[in-house]
Amino acid sequence: MPSETIYTPRQQYVLLIVCLVGLAGLILLGLGSYITAFLGAAVLYVVLRPWFAALVHHRAWNRQLVTAGLLLFSVVVIIMPFTGLVLMLVNRIRLYAQDTRPIMRVLHLVEQKTGYQFTTENNVRDLAQQVVAWLSTRIPSLASGLLHFTVIIGLMLFTLYFMFLQEEAFLRGLRRYLPFRDSTLQELSDSLRNTVNANVLGQAIIALVQALLTTLTLQLFGVEDALFWGTLAFFTAFIPVLGTPLVWGPAAIFKLAQGHVGQGVGILLVGVIVIINIDNLLRIVLAKRMGDIHPLITLAGVVLGVELFGILGLVMGPLLLSYLIVLVGVFERENRIRKRIRPQAARPLPEPPPRQPE
Known about the structure:
By secondary structure, the protein is mostly helical. The protein folds into two domains: 33-177, no CATH class; 179-340. Helices cover 81% and strands 0% of the residues. It is built from 14 helices and no strands. It has helices at residues 9-31, 35-58, 63-98, 101-114, 121-136, 140-143, 146-165, 167-177, 182-220, 226-236, 245-257, 261-290, 295-309, 313-346. Helix 2 (35-58) packs parallel to helix 7 (146-165), helix 9 runs antiparallel to helix 10 (226-236) and helix 11 (245-257) packs antiparallel against helix 12.
């Protein structure tokens, strides 16, 4: 005998969707800071998949060996250097936050040249501590301990391993459970690839070149600790519009405030003529090969993404905006199709011709 229920079939269907959304929300809430591991795995999957496809699908190499090699490559070439740069930057910012005397010397020089006192040591110390507090919520290695950071890296590599090892099942599951047509899925896939290529591969190349040029320029014109400022330039290069001038600009002002006019002007000339133009040149060259993303999308996406996802927001923020634009286009296209179909469906069928008398 079937059991009775107080819900109609439609209500049961709606409640099922509510339960699914609620459980998914609880899972995401429970993962918390570990969500960056899955986002990082997705980014690395897009970056490394062309190599995986060339070796496994085209040359029929062993899937497990190729996956292990790609994981080792990602650790040695991508994760370890980037982690080292982040730790170097964070440690130096903490040092400046604890000892503000170097910053105060620079500010006093500027005040002497301008004749205007605009800060005190307490204000500088408070500002530096606020910067460290802000970074602690944006950079995982600063916000968490060594164990937490190791767990994030391990979970990311573990996820990436199974994404490659069970690639067919993974892609089949995406096509099955994502509520989009095949054409929409292809557009989203292209948008993901273009965004990752432009904001990871392309921007990383541009940032590395600009950081090296900034380091050499500062070293050439006698700026102390040029390696640290070059490292900082690598991260500021990801910020659209502002970029590396946030580093070599204050360095030039500092040299001018010290009375070293030749060095200050030299830094400005190299920065404006070489470093900025190499950014524009590389961006034009790489845009055709690695995905052309509008600068406004990148700028707004970086602001949005860093606030939500920390350091991975450099990629995830522009990706969210790109997906929004793609889905709006899909919505507009579907509405146009429906508008063309409705008049045809509402049009009355023609009456059959009268039968001829026999």
